[in-house]
Amino acid sequence: MATINKSAEQQIVTIVSNKRVGAYHQILLNVGDIVKNCRPGNFVAIKVGGDTSKMILRRAFAISRTSESSQYGGTMELIVAPHGSGSKWLCGQDEGTEIDIVAPLGTAFGIPTEPINALLIGGGYGSAPLFGLADVLKSRGCKVDMLLGASVGSKIYAPMEGKRSVNSLKIYTEDGSMGETGRVTENLLAIVRDRNIDVIYSCGPMAMLSAITELVAETDVIHQCAVEESMACGVGICMTCVLPVRNEDGTTSMLRSCIDGPVMDGANVRWDLVGKIPEALA
Amino acid sequence: MTLPVDMSTTLGNAWFPAPIFTASGCASSGKELAQFFPLNQIGAVVTKSVMSKPRHGRPTPRMAETASGMLNSIGLQGPGIDSFLANDVPWLLEQKARVIVSIAGETVEEYSTLARKLRSVSGISAVEVNISCPNVENRGLVFACDPDASRRVIDGVRKTIGGDLPIIAKLSPDVTDLPAIARGVVDAGADGLALINTVLGMVINVDSMRPHLGGKTGGLSGPAIKPVAVRAIYQVHAALPNIPILGMGGVATGRDAFELILAGASGVSVGTASFGNPSSLIQIQNELRDLLAARGFATMQQAIGYAHREEA
Questions:
Q1: What angle do CA B218, B11, B180 make, to 5 degrees?
Q2: With an 8 Å Cβ cutoff, are B65 and A232 in contact?
Q3: How far, in Å, CA of B302 to CA of B6, rounded?
Q4: Closest to B36 (Cβ–Cβ): which among A10, A55, A242?
Q5: Of A19-33, A62-76, B257-271, where does mean pLDDT reach its minimum?
Q6: Is the confidence at residue A158, as pLDDT, over 90?
Q7: Has residue B216 been placed in a domain?
């Protein structure tokens, strides 16, 4: 009986649509009943390159949102940045192409049982899973504010329909080409204070997640972040995607961001030790 | 119509109903893959090499994909033998999986200490003695690159473990005379050999213009190294035809597994292929069965070393 990856299924699924949106591709997959087990924060691991590819590893993508419609059945949306050879291959696939996926994988964002004030912070395509999360939080009566940041405006992912699920949306770009000039961390403490934020949900570059953790360290705000580490397997067997995480007893363990993450409590991640080895074990 | 093929195999005195195994370090302790196939349907779960104490391993980045392969630099991260024996082995036995425990040490004494702890564990099928992990602090300490050090480790394990638990020595292909190393560990008491561990390699990041991996060097695995594995198994089987070999290195299909068996492997471990396809062990086992049947083999064991037969 499985105790890890227990909702995961491996399936051949079909690409329903593949559209360019700014610097990204919005890819919709017909995944059937898999959607029933997908939660905001979970990810999907996709085989890339076709059967004769020299790329042997799956690529992990955050599940942006899922829906169940009478026309397509269960669909899963991904926001993909065509950066490396695997993501470029995926972005080049046409409607109707069959691909091999494993989903859902990883931990999900914790959903509060009572209405709270939530602040969602996304960096670049890290905003993708936040819109699905916003829908769920809204349906639980939460107040949902969102901050999105990127280096340039074309790297902001903020779909029209997504904006409907948030109470406010503020955009920052480093070059000022969209929204305010600067970073999402610019006025973060003032925003947290003025809006009585209880929980921050974040997804984006590690430097952003680390900076948010540091800013809210002295507050009562809970920071749930979806981390990004390079993975070989996505299912917990390769041990490559580890992060130093503080245990309850004060020691540090190297935890796998695929099965103990991607969603982690930011306060527990030893950001100072990422890329290093923790102190020797007793 | 083809007849069913008897897929069973043996490694020393241990019997397995099927010839496809996980590769140590590529399946953790089995829990992660159990969602994708029942662990009792493969030959055995070869667990990730465990050391006497818990260990963090090497810093990230620990991985780099390469053409038809990947480099890893994990550095034997693990829970330590006590936690492993208390938690992981009982769980695997509950699943009715057969278990080969892989051990790794920094000294000859550490291997003996680990062997002593395994003595009292019932239910395990064999012990793999990993003397060839390339991701240790001092590459000069890879025991399997030194015939004398290899012998001393196996000798220590043999003397400590007692009983009849088969000892499988895992060797490195990164040596000049692999059959000589193999002969040495067999003389010291190894019942079988695991061939091959990863091949030492490096990737340089062209953005940072430095070695990409946190540990600088890493072990190359995946289809890129399969011909190295076939060569190593062929050479060692020719030199030591009666010593069972657990073959591994880049196996991703039933054809790959068949090649290793023809070269002389009695069983085949699948490692990196599981990263790209968590169901690969079962698929490979089914493809192998069909291939053996199509070639007219009634048993898998008839195919072991078949590539060595005299020309007709």
A1: 55
A2: yes
A3: 10
A4: A10
A5: A62-76
A6: no
A7: no
For position B133, what pLDDT does the model report? 84
Query: Hey, what CATH class is A9-105 in?
Result: mainly beta
| ipTM confidence | 0.94
Minimal Cβ distance to A54: which of B68, B74, B275: B68
Do A9-105 and A117-273 fold alike per CATH?
Answer: no
| Domain edges within chain A | 9-105, 117-273
Give the pLDDT band of residue A280 (cuts 50, 70, 90): low
Q: B279 to chain A: which residues are within 8 Å by CB? A: 10
Q: Which residues in chain A touch residue B275, judged by CB atoms under 8 angstroms apart?
A: 56-58, 232-233, 237-238
Q: What DSSP letter does each residue of B94-141 carry, written as one string? A: HTT--EEEEE--SSHHHHHHHHHHHHT--S--EEEEE---S-SS-GGG
Is A240 within 8 Å of chain B by CB?
yes
Q: Does residue B167 form part of some domain?
A: yes
Domain count, chain B: 1
What tens digit of pLDDT does each residue of B91-119 get?
999 999 999 999 999 999 999 999 999 99
Residue B138 has pLDDT above 80, yes or no: no
**Any CB–CB contact under 8 A between B211 and chain A?**
no
Q: Do A277 and B63 touch (CB under 8 A)?
A: no
**B258 is in which domain, residue-wise?**
9-57+76-201+221-308
Contacts of B208 in chain A (CB under 8 A): none
* Least Cα separation, residue B162 to chain A (angstroms): 30
On chain A, the residues whose CB falls within 8 A of the CB of B77 are 239, 242, 254
* A278 at interface of B, judged by CB pairs closer than 8 A: yes
Q: Is residue B177 part of a domain?
A: yes
pLDDT over threshold 90, residue A111: yes
CATH 3.40.50.80 for domain A117-273, yes or no, is yes
Of the candidates B278, B43, B44, the one whose C-alpha atom is nearest the C-alpha of residue A4 is: B278
Question: What are the residue numbers of the active site of B?
Answer: 133
Residues 6 or more apart whose CB falls under 8 angstroms from that of B268 comprise B19, B20, B21, B246, B247, B248, B251, B257, B260, B261, B284, B288
pLDDT band at residue B141 using 50, 70 and 90 as cut-offs: low
Q: Pick the closest to residue A236 from A45, A81, A36 (CA basis).
A: A45
CATH of the domain at B226: 3.20.20.70
Q: Does residue B104 belong to any structural domain of this protein?
A: yes
Among A232, A259, A281, the residue with its CB nearest the CB of B63 is A232
One-letter amino acid at B42 equals: I
